Fold this sequence. Notes:
This protein has helices at residues 9-17, 121-133, 206-212, 216-229, and strands spanning 34-36, 39-41, 46-49, 53-59, 65-71, 75-84, 90-97, 107-109, 111-114, 141-142, 164-171, 177-180, 183-186, 201-205. It is of the alpha+beta class. The chain folds into two domains: 9-71, no CATH class; 75-229, Nucleoside Triphosphate Pyrophosphohydrolase (Alpha-Beta Complex), CATH 3.90.79.10. The strands form four sheets. Strands 6, 7, 8, 9, 10, 11 and 14 form a seven-stranded mixed sheet that branches. Strands 3-4-5 form a three-stranded antiparallel sheet, with no helix packed on it. It has a two-stranded antiparallel ribbon with strand order 1-2. A hairpin with a 2-residue loop joins strand 1 and strand 2. The longest helix has 14 residues, at 216-229. The radius of gyration is 20 Å and the shape is elongated.
Amino acid sequence: MFVALGTDTTQQEEAMAAFEMGQIPKDKGRGWTVLIDGEEQKTGKVEISSKFGTLIYGLRPEGYDGWAFREQGGGGAVTVPYARTSDGELLVGLLLEKRANMGDEPVWCAIGGFVDPGESHDTAQTREAAEESGLDAAKAEELAGMATNANRAFFVADASVGEGVRAYGLSIPFDWLEADGESFKLKDAALIAGFKKADDMRLFPWRAAIGRSPDALARSAIAQLIAAVL
């Protein structure tokens, strides 16, 4: 059973209906090929579930075969550290990490991850920040705007009932930073309690940050941050 985050029962039922996949008739043409242990299977419906979420392949409401994934906790949370220079320029923090499904090299990305079952977005934000970087993000503030669907082609996330990835901003005093080429870094990692990846975080002017990050969630969060503080 999936738990939508909205409080309206009708909205929750509608969100569930959007994820419903029917049985594919045996004589219907397929756009997708299902291989199990290397052998093609003409299945009517496939469901793969875990604590993380559920993937279903079947007959979509539009009438053709396809698949969709619903994250069990209803979305995720990303944290964007930021600062303002003495001239008022907005600096945005990104973490250099190797991410699954994004190539062999580390990429500049947002700090964050998915909501665990039964967890709120706020709790997920502080937990993910601590797990990924050691960053104490308890003082981060949720940024205004709707939650983001990380991949609308295949992910199920209905922002109208509270699902999706929410963005949080964490303000850092500019005097904690020092120039490092075209970016800024912390003068002393100890300035942020528990931060274990200070060497991998840099704050860039916001335009440069958008240009450097292939992470759609980071870019979306930066846009929300700009709307909130500029």
